[in-house]
Design a protein that fits this description.
Elements (H helix, E strand, L loop, with lengths): L6 E8 L19 H16 L6 E4 L3 H12 L6 E3 L9 H11 L5 E6 L3 H11 L13 E7 L9 E6 L6
Parallel strand pairs: 1-4, 2-3, 2-4
Antiparallel strand pairs: 1-5, 5-6
Helix pairs in contact: 1-2
C-alpha cells in the first residue's frame, strides 16, 4: 500500500490595515481603514490573477478580519466564507486542527484570515512542530503551506509562499 500524496494548500492571510488600537472601545470592533480596504482589494485581485482559489475562507470573528475575508470573497477567490472563533487572537490551534482533519475530506484549498502573531506561530508549528516566533506576517500578507492529508500536519508541512503585500501590489 502506498502512502497518499494528497496535499492541502493552506493560505494564512493577515487582515489588512485597521484603525489604530485604542480608537474603539472593543479591539474586535476595529475596522479596516480606507487604505487597508484599498490595499487588501489590490492583494486579493492579484491573487485572483495568479489563479489562487479557495474551497473555503475561514475567518476570525473580529471586524477587521471579517472585512478582509469579505474582500477576498468579493473578488472571486471563494464562494464560501465561514467564521471561526479559533482564529480570534490567541485562538485554539488544537481545536482548529481537529476541525481541519474533518474538513480535509471535502476540500484541498483553504484560506485562514486572522491575526499576527498567531498566524506566524501557527505556520511555524505546522512546519517545524513548534513556534520559534520568527515568521512575521505583514498586514494583508500571505503565507502558503502544503499540508499532508494522510498524516498529522504538525511538523510535517512545507512552506511554499511567504509574501508581504508590497510584492502583490
Amino acid at each position: 500500500m502506498t502512502e497518499s500524496t494528497e496535499l492541502t494548500e493552506l493560505y494564512l492571510i493577515r487582515h489588512g490595515i485597521a484603525a489604530e488600537r485604542g480608537t474603539y472601545q472593543e479591539d474586535g470592533d476595529r475596522p479596516l481603514t480606507e487604505v487597508g480596504q484599498h490595499k487588501t482589494t489590490k492583494v486579493a485581485e492579484r491573487l485572483y490573477e495568479l489563479g489562487v482559489r479557495f474551497d473555503l475562507i475561514l475567518t476570525s470573528p473580529l471586524v477587521r478580519a471579517k472585512q478582509t475575508a469579505e474582500i477576498l470573497q468579493s473578488v472571486g477567490l471563494s464562494d464560501r466564507l465561514e467564521k471561526s472563533d479559533d482564529l480570534a487572537p490567541e485562538g485554539d490551534f488544537d481545536h482548529w486542527l481537529t476541525w481541519l482533519n474533518q474538513w480535509q475530506a471535502g476540500g484541498t484549498q483553504l484560506a485562514l484570515v486572522g491575526h499576527q502573531p498567531d498566524l506566524g506561530d501557527w505556520a511555524e508549528t505546522l512546519i517545524w512542530g513548534e513556534s520559534k516566533q520568527q515568521i512575521v506576517l505583514k498586514k494583508a500578507g500571505v503565507i502558503g503551506l502544503l499540508l499532508p492529508q494522510a498524516k498529522p500536519p504538525v511538523g510535517q508541512s512545507q512552506l511554499f509562499w511567504l509574501t508581504p503585500p508590497k510584492f502583490l501590489l
